[in-house]
Amino acid sequence: MSIETKLADLGITLPDAPAPAANYVPFVITGNLLFVSGQISPAKGRLGADLAVEEGAEAARACGLALLAQARAALGSLDRVTRVVKLAGFVNSTPEFTDQPEVINGCSNLMVEVFGDLGRHARAAVSAPALPRGVAVEIEAVFEFA
């Protein structure tokens, strides 16, 4: 089954690939690897103060949808993706907040939902005292493609 068909079956509609917000490109291709710049969530606030873990996970899922939109823009089709290699997730959180992995699972779970075992990836889930524009989550990705 194609990834585009799988998205439709899952009821997932990807957003348009967001334009860069500063002096960078949304993605870089080198060899058979696609590096997608950090995608920010629409949700704003800090985990541990303004947002619950579940809200953070939804924000991370939104980042994942934007990552997929960028990958489709770069490759022409998500069917070219052969592996989700790595995600690096940043969570705007208080010093006491320690559930960054559960937040970034919102994106990780999406990748596995869409790509199956090929969506399983290496990952970092770290805290940040602030993120651009006050967003709750930012995630970048590396995809392998054919």
UniProtKB/TrEMBL annotation:
Stretch forming the signal peptide: none
SUPFAM superfamilies cross-referenced by the UniProt entry: YjgF-like
Record-linked InterPro entries: Endoribo_LPSP/chorism_mut-like, RutC-like_sf
Domain Endoribonuclease L-PSP/chorismate mutase-like span(s) in chain numbering: 4-133
Pfam family, one: YjgF_endoribonc
Protein's UniProt name: Endoribonuclease L-PSP/chorismate mutase-like domain-containing protein
Taxonomic source organism: Paracoccus kondratievae
